[in-house]
């Protein structure tokens, strides 16, 4: 599954952000959204298929954990653009610092 396509959805990005600090049960994740639990479950399934999260059953609950390795693909793709923006921001700083405000 295409990581970029998965990350295009804001709900899935927010789910990943919620998991940055550690695993959370599905119910707690669902409670953070104004969506039905089945809708959140569908987003978690997509994240699982993309290998961005792992699922661990603990009793009656399912805990989700961030699996950040696939995000390396995104980082590799973004890296050349970081240089592009850094150069432009440096040029803007140089321009604004050289002007009398």
Automatic annotation (TrEMBL):
HTH arsR-type domain mapped to chain residues: 1-89
InterPro entries listed in its UniProt record: ArsR-like_HTH (IPR011991), HTH_ArsR_DNA-bd_dom (IPR001845), HTH_MetalResp_TranReg (IPR051081), WH-like_DNA-bd_sf (IPR036388), WH_DNA-bd_sf (IPR036390)
Keywords: DNA-binding, Transcription, Transcription regulation
The organism's place on the tree of life at top rank: Bacteria
Regions that span the bilayer: none
Protein name: Metalloregulator ArsR/SmtB family transcription factor
Organism: Paractinoplanes pyxinae
Taxonomic lineage: Bacteria, Bacillati, Actinomycetota, Actinomycetes, Micromonosporales
């Amino acid at each position: 599954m295409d990581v970029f396509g998965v990350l295009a959805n804001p709900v899935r990005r927010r789910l990943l952000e919620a998991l940055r600090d550690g695993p959370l049960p599905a119910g707690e994740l669902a409670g953070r959204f104004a969506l039905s639990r089945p809708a959140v479950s569908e987003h978690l399934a997509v994240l699982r298929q993309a290998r961005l999260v792992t699922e661990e059953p603990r009793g009656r609950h399912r805990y989700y954990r961030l699996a950040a390795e696939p995000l390396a693909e995104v980082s590799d793709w973004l890296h050349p653009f970081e240089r592009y923006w850094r150069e432009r921001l440096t040029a803007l700083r140089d321009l604004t610092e050289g002007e009398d405000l």
